[in-house]
Design goal:
Largest sheet: 7 strands, antiparallel
Strand content: 35-45%
Structural class: mainly beta
Helix content: under 10%
Number of strands: 12
Radius of gyration: 16 Å
Shape: globular
Length: 185
């Protein structure tokens, strides 16, 4: 049996809106949103974990590097289950790192470190976990992107209007860094 809940984020979700409720979600049936060329699926968020962590996946085609950004209060994990993803990270001293992650590889981004990624193979999938003292950011995907009910990648990239980017940092620990340059390849 699958339950659906009304939440403050969507009219129907399989994720209960309050902590302390056990639940199960079948493959790919979490809360989905399109952002840029990718499909993000949230399985657990701040509401379920008392803002201690989130759990989501990102799938996408081979494409461009997503915009550089940082999380002032949140640590982020990248675990690649399928395909290949290039992770770009800059530490707080300004040193930049670049690593191609393939199936089974793990990347860790400390809080306050600019980062971005680029999917290098069609059909790649990242499992993401983020945690930090300031809460979680997973609902950012729906706020900046567009919620979807169906499974699958966007037919066309979903690029939000420029002014929408400014609304994100105050509510979700995501600060975009326009003009940030990666000195790595």
């Amino acid at each position: 049996m699958t339950f659906e809940y009304a939440t403050s984020h969507r009219r129907a979700s399989r994720i209960p809106p309050v902590p302390g409720t056990p639940y199960f979600i079948e493959k790919d049936m979490g809360d989905r949103a399109h952002l840029f060329t990718d499909l993000f699926t949230v399985y657990a968020g701040g509401e379920q974990t008392e803002n201690t962590f989130n759990f989501f996946t990102c799938e996408g085609p081979k494409g461009d590097t997503i915009p550089a950004h940082l999380h002032a209060d949140t640590y982020e994990v990248f675990f690649v289950t399928d395909g290949a993803v290039r992770l770009f990270v800059e530490d707080t001293a300004g040193e930049q790192y670049e690593k191609l992650l393939t199936s089974g590889d793990f990347g860790f981004v400390p809080k306050n470190c600019p980062h971005a990624y680029r999917i290098e193979r069609h059909g790649s999938r990242i499992v993401g976990v983020a945690a930090g003292p300031g809460g979680t950011f997973e609902r950012f995907f729906e706020k900046l992107g567009t919620p979807v009910d169906s499974y699958g990648l966007p037919e066309r990239p979903y690029v939000p209007e420029r002014e929408k980017f400014a609304t994100v940092p105050t509510q979700y620990d995501v600060r975009f860094l326009p003009g940030h340059q990666w000195r790595t390849s």
